[in-house]
Amino acid sequence: MLFNSLEFLIFFPAVLCVCFILPAKVRYIWLLIASYFFYMCWNAKYALLLLFSTTVTYLSGVFMDRAEKREGMHTVRNKKLCVAGSFVLNLGVLFFFKYFDFAFTNLSRVMTLVHIQLNRPAFDILLPVGISFYTFQALSYTMDVYRREVEPERNFLRYALFVSFFPQLVAGPIERSKSLLRQLAKAPRPSIDRLRDGTLLMLWGYFLKVVLADRIAIVVDTVYGAPMTYGGWYLVVATVLFAFQIYCDFAGYSTIAMGAAEILDVRLMENFDAPYLARSVGEFWRRWHISLSSWFRDYLYIPLGGNRKGRWRKYCNVMAVFLVSGLWHGASWSFVVWGGLNGLYQVMGELVKPVRDRAVKVLGLHRETVGHKLLQTVMTFCLVDFAWIFFRGNGFMRSLEIIRSMVTVKNPWILFDGSLYKLGVEQKGFHLMIMCIGVLLLADICKYRGIRLREVIARQDIWVRWLVFSLSVCFILLVGIWGPGYDAQSFIYFQF
Questions:
Q1: Quick one: pLDDT at residue 159?
Q2: Is 329 a catalytic residue?
Q3: 431 and 261 Cβ atoms separated by less than 8 Å
Q4: 392 Cβ partners below 8 Å, 6+ apart?
Q5: Domain locations in the chain?
Q6: Spatial contact of 275 and 293, defined as CB atoms under 8 Å apart
Q7: CA-to-CA dists, residue 90 to 50, 104, 177, angstroms
Q8: Catalytic one among 74, 115, 289, 329?
Q9: Residue ranges in the chain modelled with pLDDT below 50
Q10: Which of 81, 175, 199, 215 allows an S-S link to 180, with CB 3.0 to 4.6 Å?
Q11: CA-CA distances (angstroms) from residue 361 to 354, 370, 376, 377?
């Protein structure tokens, strides 16, 4: 069930109405039922995998609590065994469904070098939607219990709701147990203020998704679908647009999720914080997909030693985190290269920092000037956008072909002769797309400077607020990608 579907627009109000009619003590059970129904709308049988991950991590918490209370000489060992068992079982399921084909294909290539032919087992594997997200969320609970950051949850149904809470189940944000479990422990209560704030968030998310991301996707898919036909500057334009497509698509989903949760009296963590205004790749990753970046920081980077064991060990840890992050995003070497590039950017940035500091001093530059900040922002965007080619290019070799075409094909006139209007979006729609990207950037600039537009709207008179709501709904319905001629676009991150 997609957020941008008629089914969800019926499902969500129905869930709300029933939730607030029921007695407070059983509302979480209704939300659990609704969450499993939401997930089963994609593939009912894969709800068993969700239940399996939930059961394993729940029992790991219970067993660690028992081991802690016994206070025997083997307490630490038993707790580590619980953690190991939880990780092996959960990551084993994730590996089978997401990485088996990738691993088998690469193993077959290696074995072919020594003249050994491997026969692939005869079964089809369909990637369960959102498996990477709920697996990581469940495993974070195991680690939090092990570190004594949270008390083990005794109520299995409430813990099951933590893993399956439908607004953020299939594409995040990846919530932490110490935040979400605490909120789910209290019954959700209706509130006009939360309804207003949540609705504003959802409207902004729908603007990002159906007005911007889905419109940009038409151009990007046209060009990347035939890179030999649309070479040179077509690919440059499509690559820049893809940076905004994936941002609007994923931030749109996260914002809708935050809004829906807000109405249900749950506050999810901010997943994006004006990432394309970052002045370095390191800052970009502190603002992009924050829930995943912080997950890798807390549960991989720091356990590996972080920056506590010397500079070169720190660089190795950074590269390890980003290579794993790339593989998390997809079972393909192109995703690994994408992750490796982002890690390399940060390592190289630190290595050349003394040179940059020296150049700034010699040239008499001032880092706090608008021009210097703008240059840093543009350079960061170019580096990040170049890496996106490997994310979108449908394979490593094809990504290299795209880069080669960008460099070798000289056709800058397509920027001015109307050729861009023949990529699936006519002239008015293309201009609307550029205008909406400008609106996004203005909103991000406000956010970057600490101006919360939602709070500004909330302080206005009631007629102003209703005018904003009404115009927003009409605009999204009128210019969003709906109806015949366009296929309903799934959110990009569902595949992860």
A1: 95
A2: yes
A3: no
A4: 220, 224, 239, 242, 246
A5: 6-189, 191-272+410-496, 280-392
A6: no
A7: 10, 20, 17
A8: 329
A9: 483-486
A10: 175
A11: 11, 17, 16, 20
